[in-house]
Design goal:
Layout: H1 3-15, H2 20-29, H3 34-41, H4 48-56, H5 62-73, H6 80-91, H7 99-107, H8 114-122, H9 129-138, H10 150-157, H11 162-172, H12 178-181, H13 183-190, H14 193-202, H15 211-232, H16 239-251, H17 255-266
Helix pairs in contact: 1-3, 2-3, 4-5, 5-9, 6-7, 9-11, 10-11, 11-14, 14-16, 15-16, 15-17, 16-17
Length: 267
């Protein structure tokens, strides 16, 4: 075997919970691709279809469905062991692999198919808030893939269950173009003092938005902050919200607008 491939196989043998023979078989089958081999070595031992059937079973206990979902998500997203190994890989001096390989491992994702995304969402009932919240958190890396469920996710963002609403808002911010399409929803939530901070926090991950649109969108909050700043100073009750707004604008090329605004308030 090529020394480069042997080095990768040695790493797989060291970190994988499987037997040496199973690791070699996986490594050969994936044509010496360490990403695919390591990923499969950390998969749940159960068949994916069996786990889907447990997850979809409305008559199954909620804890049983949650456990099935946790294992299902491991087919697509890095699990804690995977992340710990990659972190260790960057520091080790023994079984070294190329920095680009480590970077590829760290970013590697398996993409759910359209049919699988549909199955995930179709299985949710009106009383499955905990299950839905865990699903949305588990799909954070797949904003583009869940775009077909955008309307459903918007409805979840209005839920009374704050954990579910929080997960839905976070995922919405990852769907390309969803912010503009969801403006009425965001405006509705920003007018509720108990939801405002949550909405701003979940927009921290948004990128590629129009900074002028964002500034006009946040203008009512900025206006309230201005009125408070003139009486209570800059560090008033809306200071945390303003820090989030500054961060959102900076992430989308409009950070200077808040600094300019605050300079005017200080005059």
């Amino acid at each position: 075997m090529d020394p480069k491939h042997q080095k990768n196989l040695d790493f797989l043998q060291e970190q994988s919970p499987l037997s040496a023979e199973e690791n070699v078989e996986i490594f050969d089958r994936h044509k010496y691709d360490l990403r695919l081999s390591f990923w499969e070595a950390l998969w749940p031992r159960e068949e994916k279809e069996a786990l889907f059937q447990i997850y979809e079973g409305a008559d199954n206990a909620m804890q049983q469905r949650l456990e099935a979902l946790e294992k299902l998500l491991l087919f697509y997203c890095p699990n804690p062991k995977f992340k710990a190994v990659i972190l260790d890989l960057k520091r080790r001096k023994t079984v070294k692999i190329k920095a680009t390989t480590a970077e590829n491992l760290q970013k590697f994702r398996r993409i759910p198919t359209k049919a699988e995304i549909l199955r995930f969402f179709d299985a949710l009932g009106s009383k499955d808030e905990a299950l839905a919240a865990r699903l949305l958190l588990g799909l954070q890396d797949f904003g583009r893939e869940v775009a077909t469920q955008e309307r459903y996710i918007q409805m979840m963002a209005e839920a009374d269950d704050l954990a579910l609403a929080d997960a839905a808002l976070t995922l919405l911010a990852r769907i390309p173009g969803a912010f503009v399409r969801s403006l009425p929803l965001y405006q509705f939530l920003l007018h509720q003092p108990n939801r405002r901070f949550q909405v701003l926090k979940n927009l921290q991950g948004a990128r590629g938005l129009n900074p002028e649109l964002l500034f006009s969108f946040f203008r009512p909050i900025i206006g309230d902050y201005e009125r408070l700043a003139r009486t209570d100073g800059m560090m008033n009750d809306l200071w945390p919200e303003m820090q989030l707004i500054r961060s959102i604008l900076s992430n989308n090329g409009g950070g200077g607008r808040v600094w300019q605004f605050e300079s005017e308030v200080l005059k």
